[in-house]
Amino acid sequence: MKSNLKNDVPLDLEKIPAHVAVIMDGNGRWAKKKLMNRVKGHEKGSQTVRTIVTASARLGINVLTLYAFSTENWGRPKAEVTALMMLLKKFIVSERDELQKNNIRLNIIGQKYRLPEDVQKEIDITLELTRNNTRMILNLALSYGSREEITSAVKNIAQKISSKALCVEDITQDLISDHLYTRGQPDPDLIIRTSGEYRLSNFLMWQAAYSEIFISDVLWPDFSEDVFIEILKDYQKRDRRFGKIECSISNDG
Ligand code: FPP
To answer: Which residue in 72, 104, 145, 206 is a FRET match for 200, CA 20 to 30 A apart?
Structure first.
């Protein structure tokens, strides 16, 4: 969980996690501390998004998932939702060329159909432009909620059973994974949450079964490439056993 970020060892580029997911939290508190409107926090947070996307591609991360707007966030004041949608549209348009230049494929996880039409239109252009890019997938979680994702997967599987395209015996963990928004992608190796909160907040709950979790006290607008690298170094020190024990012990036993 939370660790001391004083790692003297260098980052091992051979042991970069394949999939990093981030709960970007603390924009509002950042703004409040500076006596600013919450939207200013989201604006500064958008700049951090840009920094971390570029750094991730450079470091060799294959999949970066950013929790930008949850199904619950629709319940925020209308002005804040509108501002977030505007920022999102701005990001999708302004970063289009950069994503293309860096060979990054944009992917949306969540209820894209609930976003304003103009935002969906810009997203679709970027999705189409970047669809063959291979260096990194950038999953933007938009109107995303894990319970909604699992519910929709269950409905989809039930429909296939009712139309006899599948039978009950076909239901396996892999089949369920294949009906989630993240189908075909590795589960997150590392989930980072900023701003010191210890919650998963309806994020990737199926996929997080064996993810390492890191809680950073840094508020998202202040999150930097240096902090990110220290977290990756902390991850590299961890012993991931996936519920098993070391082979040498199990062989003896
Ligand atoms: C949580 O902070 C953050 C969000 C709900 C939105 C995240 C949005 C961005 C980082 C900017 C726009 C996104 C992109 C992809 C350009 P909070 O508002 O809950 O902060 P608080 O807990 O301090 O109030």
So the answer is: 104
Task: For the full predicted model, state whether its pTM sits above 0.90.
Answer: yes
Tens of pLDDT, residue by residue over 159-176, are: 999 999 999 999 999 999
Residues with beta carbon inside 6 Å of ligand 1?
A: 24-29, 42, 45-46, 49, 66, 68, 73, 87-88, 91, 140, 195, 220
Residue for token digits 């949608």? 85
CB atoms inside a 10 Å sphere around CB 123: 20
In angstroms, the CA 16 to CA 21 distance is 13
142 Cβ contact partners less than 8 Å away, ≥ 6 residues apart: 68, 69, 88, 108, 109, 110, 111, 112, 115
Q: Is 206 helix (H, G, I), strand (E, B) or coil?
A: coil
What CATH superfamily is the domain 16-145+186-236? Decaprenyl diphosphate synthase-like (3.40.1180.10)
